[in-house]
Every structure is written in structure tokens, then in C-alpha cells.
Design a protein that fits this description.
TIM Barrel, alpha/beta, 251 residues, 45% helix, binds phosphoenolpyruvate, 12 helices, eight-stranded parallel β-barrel
Length: 251
Amino acid sequence: MRKRLVAGNWKMNTDMQDGYRLLKDILDGVREDELNACEVHVYAPFTHLKIFSNTLNGSGIGLGAQNCHQESVGAYTGEVSAEMLASVPVQHVLLGHSERRQYFNESNAVIAQKVDQALANGLKVIYCYGETLEERESNKHFEVVETQIREGLGHLSADQWSDITLAYEPVWAIGTGKTASAEQAQEIHAHSRDLISKMTNGDVANATRILYGGSVKPGNAGELFGMADIDGGLIGGAALNADSFKGIITA
Ligand code: PEP
């Protein structure tokens, strides 16, 4: 059985004080039985990670960063390595988010290097992928997501997949209020699982969690998470409000 996962991607939101308050509200509000049934992660800005790591220690809520650099060390001013993240410590890192692909020109090849850095330093990865509206409207969505998965993760061994979670995030649904229908999401998730099976084997495909992301809210989470191949959600906007994030965890 795949344990469900609800992961909050805070993006570049909250200063230290607001972020700490939000984290405490989440921590105080999530029930133990919910944490037994569902894994919960927070992906916070780099500046917040050390304090959050201390605060979340032993809480059952996982902590992650939203990016890492593709090289291990060196003259890359302003960048943060996977080794630095592991030393905080955080346990997780989000890679390949569409905003990184779009605004920072991250290619599948660069993201593949980042995945290697993360795994080499003991971090677990949420690998984001998903098509643009234009790609969906020209009926290229299956091809696009297949290329993103093959080029970003195709080099991994079957064993390495135990540290990978996928997050299907159609770009047209991120932060737009438009959600993919449960059927549209399920179709891509089933296709992705089938692809993992071809790339590795059926056991790995069955064990790998595939999250949905894109305007998930308490009101639509239950239907999405009820689909056979949707194992939870990557949450942006609704993760910045403790009540709506908790509502999604409850769903
Ligand atoms: C995201 O950015 O990962 C995301 C899913 O955002 P939102 O929930 O705001 O669409």
C-alpha cells in the first residue's frame, strides 16, 4: 500500500515571523491519527529551514527545500547544494517544478543532475512534471510527460526509485484556480505508472507515489485523492493557510 502524502510548497512566500506562525499553526492543528494515515511535508524557503528543522524534529511532519544545485560544491554564487540541505538537516527536496523550468530555464538534463545530487546526499525527491495548456490543446500531453519522466529519471536504478515521488502538475492548473478533472489527472497518473513499470518493473511502479498538483483545495481534494493512481497532492496556494492545508490533509 502506498501511504498518501500531502506536501505544501510555500514557494517564495512568508518572512521568518509569518512562516514560523504558519508552521506552528499547522503543527498544532494536524492530528496524530491523520499523520498515521497520511504523510505531511512542508517545502519552505531556504532561510527558514534551520529553525523549521528544529521545530519539526520528532513531530512526524517532514521538511524539504524547493530546489538544490546540480553541482556538489564550488563557485556558484547564490546557490545551495544538496549536501548543505542534508546538513541542516532536511529530508526532502522538490525538483523540476514548472516555475523552475519556466523562469530559470531548467531542462530535464539539469534536473536529472539535481536528482543525482539529492539522492547521493540521502535526500528524498519529489520530481515535478506536467504539460502546458498549449501542449494539452495540441494533444501532446502524453508525449511531453513521458519525455520529462524519461529524461529526468530514466537513468535511475530500480532501487533508487524508493526515494522518488512524482508530482504531476499540469502547468495550466498551477495557481490559476483551474483544476484538472479527477479523470484527466487519473489518466496521466495511470500512464505515468505504466511508464515507470516499463522503465523499472511492476513492483517499483506499484510502490511509487504519484501526487497531483494544481489548485488543490479542501473542496476538491477528496475527489482527486479518491482516484486509483492519485496518492496525494502537492499544494501551493492552499498550503499558505493552516486551515485549508489541514482541510486537504483531512480529505
Ligand atoms: C504548486 O505550485 O506546486 C501548486 C500546485 O500550486 P497551486 O496549488 O497554487 O496551484
